[in-house]
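Continuing from the previous page...

OK, I double-checked the sequence for DUF2157 domain-containing protein against my notes and this is the correct one:
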Amino acid sequence: MKAYNLTWLEERDIRQQADRWRAQQALTDEQVEQIRQAYPVRFKQTGTALEIGSFVFTLLAALALYGLVSITLDISSKGSGLVSLIMAGGTFAVAVFSIRSNQFYRNGIDNALWLVSALSAVWGLVLVFFERNDVFPPFWEVCLIALPILLAYIIYTGDTILTYFALAAFYGTIFDGLLDISWGKSALPFVLMGASAGLFGLVTWLRRSTANSVYYSDVLTLVQWVSLLIGMAAGNYYIVRELNAVLLPTRHSSSPDIALPGLFWITTFAIPAVYGVVGFRQRNRMLLIVAALGVAGAIATVYHYVGTWPLSITLAVHGGILIGLAILLIRYLTTPKNGFTDAIDEEPPLELLKHVGLLTTLQGTATAQNQPTGPRFGGGDFSGGGAGDQY
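Thanks. Re-ran it with the corrected sequence; updated structure tokens here:
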């Protein structure tokens, strides 16, 4: 069971694909119009500014209601937890009712209600069941409690805002939990790299195997981006060294060197290189973009510790080099080279075969367009013997 109508999302995806194929001249304007009539937009459509305003207003209204109830009743932490649980259930019911009655889909109001409901459920459970003698549980324990609740909401809603919080809870559990262990700080970079690699592999497998990829497409893409970036950052020498200095009990004028510096210098360049090689072989734009960011971060890391040029000159030189490389690549890839091109990367028209209904619509359109233009009969009436009245 899902919060939004999966069929409506698939129809929206068909419309978007049809627009892209028209841009590729794979479909005519008449065929696209026929598709639009066969698959109309069923969700309520609003502008981006209105969605942001609705989200902020709904969020503030919910928080004001919670604060008003808490101040009016003057309740303890347990009572505040019960109010949070009641609010979680109430906002959940309001969200479901709003979606079914107004055909909302990420219109701001529903996003805010899902967020308030999920966070209220987490907060209420922590206060009611895990707070002992007014002692709040550690941060990693709160994240561990929040993670299954957020995952349940994401499975039901496919909401990307909740996905950010779920990712924060996942990495927060690992980060803060390891800091409570004697050897945890030393193992933290390696555990983060391993967890990110595992998360990316899991999401990649889910993207290929799930039957509802349209429903979770944005969520899975977001998790892939974040896991790649954090996995790369966890192996960057600058981040590891400076974060280690922040976590030291005493402050130093400059960050002290870390254990295994050679290994982290290798990972600073090796991880972006692996991303780039795999992205090049698989023609994966996400991996190539993250690899380019990693190379830029590696160069900045080298400059930070061994560079002698002023920062302004370094930025100007690097910016000029990157602009020149971009211009050369654009000109070089005007015609496709080994599967790479400067043209917009869209799905091939063969993707039509995945939508039988869309293929039928196109076939009907083509048949209508190919009718002979000779004399046409019609307009007469005939009745009797059970026959129809039009011929």
